[in-house]
Write a structure and sequence with these properties.
Blueprint lengths: L2 E2 L19 E6 L5 E6 L22 E5 L5 E5 L8 H13 L6 E5 L4 H4 L14 H28 L6 E4 L2 E4 L4 E4 H8 L30 H6 L14 E7 L6 E4 L2 H5 L4 E6 L3 E6 L2 H10 L3 E3 L8 H11 L5 E6 L2 H6 L3 E9 L11 E7 L2 E6 L4 H12 L6 E5 L13 H10 L6 E4 L2 H6 L7 E9 L5 E10 L2 H5 L26 E7 L13 H21 L3 H7 L5 H14 L5 E2 L2 E10 L2 E11 L5 E11 L6 H21 L4 E2 L2 E2 L17 E6 L12 H18 L13
Parallel strand pairs: 1-6, 5-6, 10-20, 18-19, 22-23, 27-30
Antiparallel strand pairs: 2-3, 3-4, 4-5, 7-8, 8-9, 10-13, 11-14, 12-13, 15-23, 16-21, 17-18, 17-20, 21-22, 24-25, 25-26, 26-27, 28-29
Helix pairs in contact: 1-3, 3-4, 10-11, 14-18, 17-18
Length: 731
């Protein structure tokens, strides 16, 4: 894969009005010749920036197909690759309709420009929420098909034949009757002069004609990751660059009151000490010297107003807040009256801890601030906001800030935040050289922005046969979306925080869902691989399992009976159970647990086996997953995402917990914030439902599905209900 960071030349072309819910395309002549196809993604502003006449100039498109005279096809990628396979699946969409091989598509990272590169599913220039394939599915295919139509028309005009007698195949246009052929490179100048087809006239391939979509495709980024040529933010090397390590106040809201700069400067290779209000950085020739410099600083802190905050105090305040009525999220058929008339009422309280992201690539950002410009080299999920924050921190206009984006070594929502960019720019303002600011693993974990702590009160009323007649859920916790996008917080709640709780897959005669927003003192919270569903699906699927046990019913059949109205959910659950050989919640020495969900546009079910390991710990030998994510672009990517999410989710369920004492995060590295080791990873079987529905998301659903299935398996194994995570704290 040829992946470069463009250096665009912009003009002052005005931005037109926001387009409607259709896709617009425009053909542009390329400097030096060629075809550029500008695509305006639905819901996003778009305009073309014409470059100068210089043959070295480039255009800055929205989602743009560019074909040059050599036949090279370039896609300027509006999304980022952080391991999810985007940089293979999206080229498959273009290549399918353009009739080329995906290996023939070169990629460029899109520059910061939300008006051209905005994600139509999220409204800004960001990658997250398992939205990429859902957002790209139609626009990218239409872009490829539109380019193909223009190339065919250009060839037909040259041959003076009807375009319907020509077809495209592997980068050429063929006139079968005469055997004539022209490559795309030979046609691009003429194609650029063709009228752009109206979107309503573009007929996309039917499923039975797909050549690439739905077939396993090798990842285009694998080779670079194997041979070391793939570039992540942490890999940046610039002439004259220095490296900085930093130490941030151990208590959120604390201030730096003293340090021994002279001691740090005695370290060989240390060039400079930068002191900010809440952190210190040591700038050195290399990371080793910078870390030694930090250790020598003898930092002194004023811990500030959060010095006495603890997990216990946070939970106590949250428990108190949870007693309030809360905002009404959903209310149908008077559940309180139904509870009063129920044969039995079941109640449970669930607690889910703060969680860190802990990506393999720790936070890092390289910055060079000059008098008239600021350059930032970083891997970020939200390039547009990174540009705005860098501009504010540097004191320069936004147009003077250039973000050079890179592959991301793990995001999980952490790189939807820009605190790392802001700190790096603030430090770089004091350094005359480019400076790479790298967070150590300890700084990364202890100064993360954490998955919120949640406290949920559940009630259900059962009839004489054990079937639910009422279901209520009261959620208490932080609203990440309320901070991230305040306008999305309406009527006392936001849709993301309650996602998975407000619309469970089951049919309940009466239901009530309420929410109390409670922001924890001194602990910043953020998105974490599916904040809403990862929390709510755990609670819903754990509680439904409790109801099945109370009713004396098989957990599988109990769920199936409540899913008669929901065929796709019922289908994945039945498929997972069949492939796992479900014979009940206990099989031999293993406890078995189930879950089913609809999240991020995808239906998924899991069966998890839990056993007691040699050191009396819970181990997971096998996970069986059934997934209906609509039309599958690359089945290999779907399987890889399930495997990744399973490992991520099991790690969180068994070990994940960030705790606070005296305002400080107690965990610091993988020895006390554990993730599964290779020998602990389960066998993961993924069974994909053949579906013609539009694609659903795959980056996050598996994490939400595996945690309750594991908790239910632990109950089957030990007889203990998991109502408080992590599981290790329960059994």
């Amino acid at each position: 894969m040829n992946l470069t960071t463009p250096n665009p030349v912009l003009d002052d072309a005005p931005v037109p009005a926001r387009p409607g819910r259709r896709l617009f395309m425009k053909a542009l002549g390329a400097a030096g010749g060629g075809l550029l196809l500008q695509v305006a993604v639905p819901g996003a502003l778009a305009h073309a920036a014409a470059a100068s006449a210089s043959s070295s100039a480039r255009f800055v498109p929205n989602a743009l197909v560019r074909i040059d005279r050599s036949g090279k096809v370039t896609l300027v990628m509006p999304y980022v690759e952080m391991g999810q396979g985007t940089y293979t699946s999206i080229p498959m969409l273009i290549a399918e309709e353009l009739e080329i091989d995906i290996a023939d598509v070169a990629l460029e990272h899109a520059p910061a420009d939300a008006t051209r590169y905005g994600n139509p599913a999220l409204g800004g220039q960001m990658t997250g929420g398992s939205t990429t394939m859902r957002a790209a599915w139609m626009p990218m295919r239409q872009a490829g098909a539109g380019a193909r139509i223009m190339l065919v028309r250009a060839a037909a005009q040259q041959w003076q034949v009807d375009p319907s007698t020509c077809h495209a195949e592997r980068g050429t246009v063929i006139h079968a009757a005469s055997g004539r052929k022209l490559s795309y490179g030979q046609l691009v100048d003429a194609a650029a002069k063709q009228p752009v087809p109206d979107v309503k006239d573009i007929v996309l391939k039917p499923r039975d004609q797909f050549r690439l979509i739905g077939t396993p495709a090798k990842r285009l980024d694998t080779k670079g990751k194997l041979d070391g040529s793939a570039q992540y933010g942490i890999d940046v090397v610039l002439p004259g660059m220095k490296v900085a390590a930093l130490a941030i106040s151990p208590v959120n809201g604390g201030r730096l009151v003293g340090l021994d700069e002279a001691a740090a400067r005695k370290i060989k290779g240390v060039r400079q000490v930068v002191r900010l209000d809440d952190c210190a950085a040591v700038v050195a020739d290399n990371m080793g010297a910078a870390k030694k410099g930090i250790a020598a600083l003898a930092l002194r802190w004023d811990d500030g107003p959060n010095a006495k905050v603890s997990t216990e105090s946070i939970v106590a305040n949250m428990t108190k807040a949870a007693q309030a009525p809360g905002a009404k999220v959903r209310l149908e058929n008077d559940p309180q009256a139904a509870l009063k008339g129920a044969a039995k009422v079941v109640e449970a309280t669930y607690e889910l801890p703060f969680l860190a992201h802990a990506p393999m690539e720790p936070m890092n950002c390289t910055v060079h601030v000059q008098a008239d410009r600021c350059d930032v080299w970083v891997g970020t999920q939200i390039i547009g906001l990174a540009q705005v924050v860098a501009a504010k921190a540097s004191g320069l206009p936004v147009e003077k800030v250039t973000i050079h984006n890179f592959l991301i070594g793990g995001g999980f929502g952490r790189r939807l935040e820009v605190d790392g960019v802001e700190r790096a720019v603030r430090i770089a303002k004091h350094v005359k050289h480019p400076v790479k600011v790298i967070w150590t693993r300890e700084e990364d974990i202890q100064h993360d922005m954490f998955r919120p702590y949640f406290y949920d009160r559940m009630q259900a009323g059962l009839d004489a046969a054990g079937k639910p007649v009422a279901w209520t859920a009261h959620i208490t916790g932080s609203s990440v979306l309320g901070r991230f996008m305040p306008a999305a917080f309406n009527n006392g709640f936001d849709s993301e925080t309650v996602d998975g709780a407000d619309n469970p897959p089951y049919a309940f005669p009466s239901i009530g869902v309420t929410y109390t927003r409670h922001e924890p003192q001194g602990v910043p919270t953020a998105f974490w691989r599916g904040v809403g569903p990862a929390h709510n699906v755990f609670v819903v699927e754990s509680f439904i399992d409790e109801l099945a046990t109370t009713a004396g019913a098989d957990p599988l059949q109990y769920r199936l009976d409540l899913l008669a109205h929901n065929p796709r959910a019922r289908n994945v659950l039945a498929l997972a159970a069949e492939k796992a050989g479900w014979k009940g919640p206990k099989q031999g020495s293993a406890g078995r647990g189930l879950s089913v969900q609809f999240a991020f546009g995808t239906y998924m079910a899991m069966v998890v086996d839990a056993v007691v390991g040699p050191e009396n710990e819970i181990r997971v030998p096998r996970v069986v997953c059934a997934v209906d994510c609509g039309t599958v672009v690359n089945p290999d990517t779907v399987q890889a995402q399930v495997q990744s999410a399973v490992v991520f989710g099991i790690s969180a369920a068994l070990y994940g917990a960030v705790t606070i004492k005296d305002g400080r995060v107690e965990q610091s590295n993988f020895h006390d914030y554990r993730v599964l080791r290779m020998h602990e990873a389960p066998l993961v079987e993924t069974h994909i439902v053949d579906s013609g529905e539009t694609p659903g998301g795959m980056g996050e659903p598996g994490t939400a599905a595996v945690m309750p299935a594991l908790a239910n398996a632990v109950h089957a194994l030990t007889g203990k209900r998991v109502r408080k995570m992590p599981i290790g704290a329960t059994v």
